[in-house]
Amino acid sequence: MSVADSVLTRVPQAYRALAVRHRELLKFGVVGAITFFIDTGIFYALKLTILSPKPVTSKVIAVLVATLVSYVLNRDWSFRTRGGRRRHHEATLYFIISGIGVGLYSAPLWVSRYMLHLQTPFTSRLVEEIADFTAGQVVGLLLGMAFRWWAFRKWVFPTDHEDDDQRENALAR
Question: pTM, whole model, 2 decimals?
Answer without folding.
Answer: 0.71
